[in-house]
């Protein structure tokens, strides 16, 4: 059966590397992105021309339920019924301690990272599960090592949102195991992507790398391999 995989946050970083890796393995790829249309179009162009694969890019804010529903409807119409979801899109905010956290910031983090991932998982289950006439599939949630480290004085809000992703993974995996759907999580450590610029420290990985067992940060492709 042709594998059809949706990767949220596929325009950059880990999602982009995963799109390339899975396209090379023969998956038809749908990538979701938020605002970087140029980079999203570049990803699908590379898949089409250099890899010879099939790919489409769809703009959708995963924090918005209507946009999530429309994202999946467009994948249905343009690629077919998905067999895989990589719940990868996520955000963090500038480094801060608890005294600086506002409800506005917390709502942004949790709506995107947690609610967005739940909504995408819901739409995937509606298409993959036997009880809805589907043929099974696989969901990979991209969590973070932050969920067990807590990220003190950096972003405990982000870390807590990834804790929720870990619990979603456990609960949903048990809920849909008899529906032919596997649900797993990958918890990357410190990976070279632009996400650290959003946290206000573009060179964060280089700052911490000597404290890591391998004395180096990770590359997006290494995470892509784990996701695959
Ligand atoms: P990144 O380079 O900042 O890319 C984030 C991606 O998510 C982009 O494609 C972005 O789209 C998309 N996105 C952001 N908000 C969105 C929204 N509301 N709706 C739809 N898409 C949205 O991030 P990354 O480092 O590759 O991280 C990918 C995942 O890995 C995240 O879940 C992150 O928490 C996790 N992770 C990363 C690290 C690390 O060290 N980098 C470590 C552990 C876990 P646009 O390009 O359009 O903005």
Automatic annotation (TrEMBL):
Q: Which UniProt keywords apply?
A: Oxidoreductase
Q: Which PROSITE patterns match?
A: ADH_SHORT
InterPro entries for the chain: NAD(P)-bd_dom_sf, Sc_DH/Rdtase_CS, SDR_fam
Basic and acidic residues compositional bias, start-end: 198-209
Q: What is this protein called?
A: Glucose 1-dehydrogenase
* CDD domains listed in its UniProt record: SDR_c
Does this UniProt record's set of keywords contain Protein transport? no
């Amino acid at each position: 059966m042709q594998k059809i995989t949706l990767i949220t946050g596929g325009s950059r970083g880990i999602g982009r590397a995963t799109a390339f890796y899975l396209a090379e393995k023969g998956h038809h790829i749908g990538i979701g992105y938020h605002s970087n249309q140029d980079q999203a179009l570049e990803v699908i162009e590379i898949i089409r021309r250099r890899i010879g694969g099939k790919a489409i890019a769809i703009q959708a804010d995963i924090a918005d339920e209507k946009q999530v529903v429309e994202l999946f409807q467009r994948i249905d119409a343009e690629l077919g019924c998905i067999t895989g979801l990589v719940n990868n899109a996520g955000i963090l905010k500038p480094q801060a301690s608890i005294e600086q956290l506002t409800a506005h910031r917390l709502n942004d983090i949790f709506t995107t990272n947690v609610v967005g991932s739940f909504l995408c998982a819901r739409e995937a289950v509606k298409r993959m599960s036997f009880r809805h006439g589907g043929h099974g599939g696989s969901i990979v949630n991209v969590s973070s090592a932050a969920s067990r480290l807590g990220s003190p004085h950096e972003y405990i809000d982000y870390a807590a949102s990834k804790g929720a992703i870990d619990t979603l993974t456990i609960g949903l995996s048990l809920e849909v195991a008899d529906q032919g759907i596997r649900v797993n999580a990958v918890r990357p450590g410190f990976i070279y992507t632009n996400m650290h610029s959003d946290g206000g420290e573009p060179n964060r990985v280089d700052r911490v790398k000597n404290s890591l067992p391998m004395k180096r940060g990770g590359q997006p492709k290494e995470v892509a391999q784990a996701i695959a």
